Amino acid sequence: MADITVPVLGESVTEATVGTWMKAPGDAVAKDEVLVELETDKVSIEVSAAEDGVLSEIAAKEGDTVEIGALLGRIGSGSGAAPAPSAPAAAATPAAAPSGGGDSVKVVVPAMGESVTEGTLSQWLKKPGEAVEVDDPIAEIETDKVAIEVPSPVAGVLSETLIAEGTTVGIGTEIAMITAGASASAAPAAAAPTTAPAAPASSSAAVAPSVRRISAENDVNPADIPGTGRDGRATKGDALSYVAQGTKSASAAPAAVARDIGPREERVKMTRLRQTIAKRLKEAQNTAAMLTTFNDVDLTEVMAMRSKYKDLFLEKHGVKLGFMSFFTKAVVHALKEIPAVNAEIDGTDLIYKNYYDISMAVGTDKGLVTPVVRDADTMSLAQIEAEIGRLGKLARDGKLALSDLQGGTFTITNGGVYGSMMSTPILNPPQSGVLGMHRIEQRPVAIKGEVKIRPMMYLALSYDHRIVDGKEAVTFLVRVKENLEDPERLLLDL
C-alpha cells in the first residue's frame, strides 16, 4: 500500500485545488503514470504513481482544497495492475550491483522555486557504481533562471540513473536510485543514454487537464502538440510553446528544418538559461517604449576617496572599497527623487515602489544573471560591497537561488569591466530603468576655462518612456552624475 500525497508546490505556495483525476478507484496504474493534476494560483502540478498497482482509494475529490502533505489517495497491490510502459528514451541501464547493499533510496527532483515546475537535467555529476555521501551533488538541473544541484539523500552507491542528460523533468520526478550504505563495485557502470529526443504525443497517453484547457482556449487539437514528457505525453509547457508559435494544427505549417552545417561549424543546443535570456530581452524590446539617454561623469573625487581610505576600509570591514557601492548609493539617492524610474507598469496601473532592491548584472559562463541587493538604501558602503561580492561568487559558481534573482526594482550593469566605452543597455522587465557603466578613460575636459585630464566615464540610462518622461530620465542621470562627482552629497543627503 502506497499513499499518494500532495508534493511540495513551490516557494510560498501552501495549498492547491484538486483538478481532474485521470484514474478511478479500481483502475490499474503504472509507476510514474500521472494520476491527478493539482492547480495552484501560479502553476499546475501533476502527481504521478510511485509504484505499479491499483488505485484503491481517492481521498481528495476534484475541487477539494488540499495542503502540502495531505492524502490524495492510495495505491494497493493487485493482479490487475497495468503493465509497465515500454522503456522511454531516458531510461538508463542499471549499474553493476554494489556490494554490501542496503535499502534502495529514490532520488527525486526537489522544489525549484516559486512558479518553476520543470527543468532540464543538464549533467550527471556522479556515475552509476560511484560512492556518494549525504548531500553530495549527483546531478545538475537547469531551469529558466538558475542551475540547481540535486544532493544525495543518503550515503551509499549510485546504483541506477533513470533519466538521461538533456531530459526535461518536473518536481518530484524520480531520477536515480541509491543503495544506502553500500560500497562501490569495481565493475564499470553503464551510463545513461546521452540523448532523449522528444517524441510526438501518443494518442493513447492521458492528456493533462492543463493541456486540454490550453488547447480548448486556443482552438488546437491536443493530439497535434509534440510532447516532451514521459512516453511522449504533452506537458503544459509543450502546449504553451505550441500556441506561442501560432500553430493551429499539425498541417498548418511544416516544422522548421535545421540547416546543414559546414565542416568548420559546430551545432550546440542553447541552454535553458540562454533561451530565457533571449526571450526576455526580445520581450523587453517588443513591450517597452525603450529610450536611452547619455551623460559622462568625472570620477576624480571618488577615485581620490578610494585611494585615501582603501587600506583602512579593507582592514576594518574585510572587503575592498570598489566603485559599485558608490554607484549604488548614487542610484538610490536619485531614485528617491525620481520615483518613476523605480516603478513598473501593471496593466493600466503604475506601481510605485518605496523600497530599493538593486539588480546587479553579472556575466557568467552560462549567461548574464542579475542577482539583487536587497534594501540597498539601508546599507552602508561596506555592506553593499560585501553583498555584491557574495552574490557575484554565487553567480560564478552557479549556486544562485531563485530568491536571489527575483524582485529587483532597478538594474546596474557594468560593461566597463570588459572594456566597453559606450552602450545602450536593455531593460530588465518589469523594471523601468537600467544604468549602464563603462570603462574609465583619462580624457581632456574643460574646467573653469582650463583643459584638465580627468578620469571620465560615460553613463547610459535606458528607460521605459511609457512611464518615465524624458525630463525625468535626464534629471535622474544628472543626479547620479552630481552624487559621484561630489560624494559628500551622499553623506549629507543633498
UniProtKB/TrEMBL annotation:
Keywords: Acyltransferase, Lipoyl, Transferase, Tricarboxylic acid cycle. Its cofactor is (R)-lipoate. PROSITE patterns: BIOTINYL_LIPOYL, LIPOYL, PSBD. GO terms for molecular function: dihydrolipoyllysine-residue succinyltransferase activity. The keyword Transferase applies. It is an enzyme of class 2 (transferase). It holds the Pfam family Biotin_lipoyl. InterPro entries: 2-oxoA_DH_lipoyl-BS, 2-oxoacid_dehydrogenase, 2-oxoacid_DH_actylTfrase, Biotin_lipoyl, CAT-like_dom_sf, E3-bd_dom_sf, PSBD, Single_hybrid_motif. Residues 1-76, 104-179 form the Lipoyl-binding domain. Its EC number is 2.3.1.61. Residues 82-98 have a biased composition (Low complexity). It comes from the Bacteria. Pathway: Amino-acid degradation; L-lysine degradation via saccharopine pathway; glutaryl-CoA from L-lysine: step 6/6. Signal peptide: none annotated. Residues 206-243 form the Peripheral subunit-binding (PSBD) domain. It catalyses: N(6)-[(R)-dihydrolipoyl]-L-lysyl-[protein] + succinyl-CoA = N(6)-[(R)-S(8)-succinyldihydrolipoyl]-L-lysyl-[protein] + CoA. Residues 82-102, 213-234 are annotated as: Disordered. E2 component of the 2-oxoglutarate dehydrogenase (OGDH) complex which catalyzes the second step in the conversion of 2-oxoglutarate to succinyl-CoA and CO(2). Belongs to the 2-oxoacid dehydrogenase family. This is Dihydrolipoyllysine-residue succinyltransferase component of 2-oxoglutarate dehydrogenase complex.
